[in-house]
Amino acid sequence: MKPVLLLCALLSLTACSFMGSEEAVNPMEAPKDLLPEEAFVRLMYEMNLIEGARTGNTLLGDSLPLGPYFETLYRDFDVTAEQVQRSFAYYHGDPERMARYYQWIIDSLRADVQILSTPTSVSDDE
Length: 126
Prior knowledge:
mainly alpha
């Protein structure tokens, strides 16, 4: 009987340790040159804008290479491609956090579409 109680107690404690943590813990160690969250998300947003323009039906088409655009973006953010890759790998170690980031990016892109789709009024002076 005691081994059964001990097993039940052990299973209960194990279940509590798995379910008690609200915040996911990233299994990776943060790189020394990790981009701050806000900068990383903003960079991801800009990268999605570039990718969206490239694969859209008009404008840039899909034959233009993205490398030069990303290099310019990295320069604007004062980061390297390797730093972005390490930060990307680190932040992707926490899927719940990345889901929030992507949701913010999607919401922001939708808001941009709304703004750009709104007809502008023509003034009487024209």
